[in-house]
Design a protein that fits this description.
The protein is an alpha+beta fold. It contains 6 helices and 14 strands. Helix 6 (about 195-205) links the parallel strand 11 (about 175-180) and strand 12. The chain starts with 8 loop residues before the first helix and ends in a 7-residue tail after the last strand.
Length: about 250
């Protein structure tokens, strides 16, 4: 890849090969069909390629880099948090304080039976109506234990108890929150472990002097994605340019 391409994600993308899926049921909006654009699986997912495609709205799932490409719908919006401008709300500060007793550490993306056991419990309890039900070891391996140089697992523990795992990619311009699963036991509900994982990743990006935390896609009409609006300021990709999103309460 030439040096001229290094700072131009559009030019880098033109040098790559992509494929489109056939229309399939949308995972987010009931009754709609979706089409997905994905990078040729034969292409090497080098860090600089991944960085460039992330700036164009691509996400990673296992070994695949993809983004929605639906002719009649543009509901899926890529969003990211500019971490230096982020200030936790009063509710988020309480959440941080409530979880002061949780420790975090980075782990490699290798299969861990304890991680899988937590993942399986989480999917059965929270996503029994989703695409990943029923969980299986093979599915988990393909999704979250691919050996990429940028891929890590962020482990959350309360003493010896595994509370949550956040699959996180370390990019040149930010962290990308791939997937988080946590203990679904109601006794931990007040800890809001999914929200705490995002707040922890924001702080880790700040410590690494990385400007952004990428949160994947946001859909205004999808109730399950509304939590992403709680992290302000939020930027969204619009016509190839990242712009600040106006908070819903200010509209």
């Amino acid at each position: 890849m030439s040096s001229d391409n290094a700072n131009n994600p559009q030019r880098q993308a033109r040098d790559l090969r992509f494929f489109l899926t056939v229309p399939h049921p949308c995972s987010y909006l009931k009754g709609r069909e979706a089409t997905t654009l994905f990078l040729d699986p034969e292409e090497t997912v080098a860090p600089e390629v991944y960085d460039a495609l992330t700036l164009l709205g691509f996400r990673r799932s296992g070994s695949n880099l993809y983004r929605p490409h639906c002719e009649a719908c543009s509901a899926c919006t890529s969003v990211r948090i500019p971490v230096e401008d982020f200030t936790p709300s009063r509710t988020q500060r309480k959440l941080i304080n409530r979880n002061r007793d949780i420790t975090t550490r980075w782990r490699p993306t290798v299969f861990d039976e304890q991680h899988y056991s937590l993942y399986a419990r989480y999917i059965r309890a929270r996503h029994a109506d989703g695409d990943m039900f029923p969980p299986s070891r093979e599915q988990y391996r393909m999704f979250l234990t691919q050996a990429h140089p940028f891929a890590k697992l962020l482990e959350f523990r309360l003493g010896d108890h595994l509370m949550a795992v956040a699959a996180t990619d370390c990019l040149g311009h930010g962290l990308s929150a791939i997937y988080t699963f946590f203990d679904p036991d109601p006794i931990f509900e007040r800890r809001s472990l999914g929200g705490f994982a995002i707040l922890s990743q924001i702080e880790l990006a700040r410590e690494r002097r990385l400007p952004y935390l990428y949160l994947g896609y946001w859909i205004r009409a999808c109730q399950k994605m509304r939590y992403k609006q709680d992290y302000q300021p939020l930027e969204y990709l619009n016509g190839g340019r990242w712009q600040r999103m106006v908070p819903a309460k200010a509209l």
